């Protein structure tokens, strides 16, 4: 087994066994080192600014030691100098086209570009600067004020960094003030740092809904105080406190810089309102995108903490190694079968959430090809194929046919069928005893249930159908569960005239740990269906 | 890697940290064995409730099922339930093997081990320990775990008043966290977001519910946090700074708390008060530390080498995964497991 690991190691030359890192600066270096660390080949495409917006809470000396250690591990990488314009999933990797027009295939791609910080709010004096990872030079011992949570809660990594710098300044003989609404105590030692700063004399002032007032003092003498700060402290005195200080820094949150076009197109559905990429996906691993083999580390995902970025880099590198192991291992079985009924209408290619289907190029009338490593067997394509040319090999259409045949002769008066996604309902069912009138049928994904299956089931002697998919936003196949809702809405419009079974079909969402709720949903449905028919 | 120990990684603890580590090891072709004291895998996460409303709120409690499915069907691993670690044999360069014992039969066994991952998790803070807030004596005071259990069993309706009126509950944050008097001078990392999710989940099921959250400092990070805050504000969840020190039962069966707002003392009545309990070091941490000689830090969590090396124990061959090195939420644990496996791979490559 370890040989497998060794084979994937540094010396490999197979293109889709290597990783591409896109980005410049510290984040990209951290990611490159992490990938090298797990023994993968890596190409570094330089893109974006060289600056760093990674905050760290270690002292300068150990940070330099860290950087030296990192640089020692860093391989000299040669690669395209520009951003990728297009990233297209191939059978077990990605074909990346760069600005230069060159195309290369990689097994895995990492986006590791640097971010930027928002400018200081406009209503503050122009001399107020944003808090950056750099520290004010040690020689300037003065009174410093850090303004956090102004307009929006400051990122805790930036907050913790401010406290650290405030403490350093206080220790060096200066005066430090930290104005905040929420004390950032992130991490195991956050509280310790906060307390150390308080004990050292850093003045923490907590303001409420009324923001502090910062005024620029117009004094002719350069060495005297430059700002007047007034703040209502809501915890200790409740009164307004005013003080003068030499410099004021405001906590400004990160914003995303322009993404390389290739990533923007690939990860369309994985940005939040602020434009940050995946950080908290359904896969529950920070940095792991919905597409297997595509990762996003550092500021472009909204993370500006050095150690967190290192952590994400390491864990995504391991996941990438796992993906490459899997994607390059010989696959024993085809997951899908495609019959000659296929007319290459491309519906499946368009709908596949996993980019698993490609056109079988070459022959004049060849059909589509399914990537065994990418296919997650959701069956959305099977359900939507207008020619019924596709089938999942481990969840065959025949299974539904035999279920429907069985239901035609069903003797129970009040039988209902529950179709449940194996990932959610399939787990939940193990903890409950189903009522006697319920027939449970696990499906690969709620998106597999085609309108024809649902219609055929409803046309049997059953009283009703309950579809249990995963919760919206928690579907392994992105929108598989939503497909069930869409089809149901389509069918409901026609149901009355078709079968006389209004309300006989329902769709609910569920998680694997909701067995008790599953039972309630089934009982409620069963109750309502029987009521309608009586 | 030497042949005699087969390259196997032994993981102590089958909670989400152990499972996440095992999954990544297995995916990278490295054999593993999970040694778990209880009868089941999944640890605390397995008892946690789903927090989805109209959509998934990223509580990640379902991740444990995905991990468990993968790990139990892995050809690279062995799962030993009702077993515990009792000895570690070291070689000059690192580990050689570990001794495990079946809790029920007492049968002992030697497992070859190239690396040992400690993933023994955390202990939920027991508010009885502190004696405040009347947990265990005053009816209506419960913990976030208790609330989760109710949700898991779909019994949230039990909290509704007899007259069918709106459910009226308050969360107290930082119970057993950020508290020097009990040696828990740290933030427990998970509870702010967990309380907000539980509030949203409650309001989703009973939209007329009134929910207040008493906090010291809101510690919510990342984009999920912003989405949660926006949702909470939209649904009318009240955020009140300062956690009341006392809960008084009153005649109508309700709970009365006094807190300060805008310089005034305010008295308010709630039906239920949920204590957002923090994470304490695992009860087995001390014993495991003694057996393995892996040192603990000042809080009682397993010590790691440094901030930039947060998964290696100072002891060669021993790795610390998940919340036994400090409080963590589920995505943090998943990420941490990745770091553990990357460190193991790196160390293996170096010894070959």
How would you summarize what this structure contains?
Chain A is an alpha/beta fold and 534 residues long. In chain A, 30% of the residues lie in helices and 21% in strands.
List descriptors.
heterodimer; A: 534 residues; alpha/beta; FAD/NAD(P)-binding domain; Alpha-Beta Plaits; 4 domains; five-stranded parallel sheet; four-stranded parallel sheet; 25 strands; 30% helix; globular; disordered N terminus; B: 352 residues; 2 domains; 7 helices; elongated
Layout of strands and helices, then pairs:
The complex is a heterodimer of chains A (534) and B (352).
Chain A lengths: L1 H6 L10 E5 L2 H13 L3 E5 L14 H14 L10 E6 L4 E5 L4 E4 L1 E4 L4 E2 L11 E2 L12 E5 L8 H16 L3 E6 L9 H11 L2 E4 L6 E4 L10 E6 L7 E6 L1 E4 L3 E2 L5 H6 L27 E3 L9 H23 L7 E3 L8 H5 L5 E3 L8 E3 L9 H5 L5 E3 L4 H12 L7 E6 L3 H4 L9 E6 L7 H8 L5 E7 L9 H20 L5 E6 L4 H19 L1
Parallel strand pairs in A: 1-2, 1-6, 6-17, 8-15, 9-10, 9-15, 10-11, 22-23, 22-24, 24-25
Antiparallel strand pairs in A: 3-4, 4-5, 7-16, 12-13, 13-14, 18-21, 19-20
Helix pairs in contact in A: 2-7, 4-5
Chain B lengths: L8 E4 L3 H12 L4 E5 L26 H10 L4 E5 L1 E8 L4 E8 L5 E5 L2 E4 L3 E3 L16 E3 H9 L15 E8 L15 H15 L4 E6 L6 H13 L3 E4 L6 E2 L5 E7 L2 E7 L1 E6 L1 E3 L3 H8 L25 E3 L9 H22 L1
Parallel strand pairs in B: 1-2, 1-7, 2-3, 7-18, 9-16, 10-11, 10-16, 11-12
Antiparallel strand pairs in B: 4-5, 5-6, 8-17, 13-14, 14-15
Helix pairs in contact in B: 1-2, 1-7, 4-5
How would you sum up this structure, described in words?
The complex is a heterodimer of chains A (534) and B (352). Chain A is an alpha/beta fold and 534 residues long. Chain A folds into 4 domains: 2-115 and 256-328, FAD/NAD(P)-binding domain, CATH 3.50.50.60; 129-250, FAD/NAD(P)-binding domain (3-Layer(bba) Sandwich), CATH 3.50.50; 337-393, Alpha-Beta Plaits; 395-533, Rossmann fold (3-Layer(aba) Sandwich). Helix content of chain A is 30%, strand content 21%. Chain A has 14 helices and 25 strands. In chain A, helix 2 crosses helix 7 and helix 4 packs parallel to helix 5. The model of chain A is unreliable at 1-13 (pLDDT under 50). Chain B folds into 2 domains: 9-121 and 282-351, FAD/NAD(P)-binding domain (3-Layer(bba) Sandwich); 125-278, FAD/NAD(P)-binding domain. Helices cover 25% and strands 26% of the residues of chain B. Chain B is built from 7 helices and 18 strands. Chain B has helices at residues 16-27, 63-72, 144-152, 191-205, 222-234, 285-292, 330-351; strands spanning 9-12, 32-36, 77-81, 83-90, 95-102, 108-112, 115-118, 122-124, 141-143, 168-175, 210-215, 238-241, 248-249, 255-261, 264-270, 272-277, 279-281, 318-320. In chain B, helix 1 (16-27) packs across helix 2, helix 1 crosses helix 7 (330-351) and helix 4 runs parallel beside helix 5 (222-234). At the A-B interface, helix 1, helix 5, helix 7 and helix 14 of A face helix 2, helix 5 and helix 7 of B.
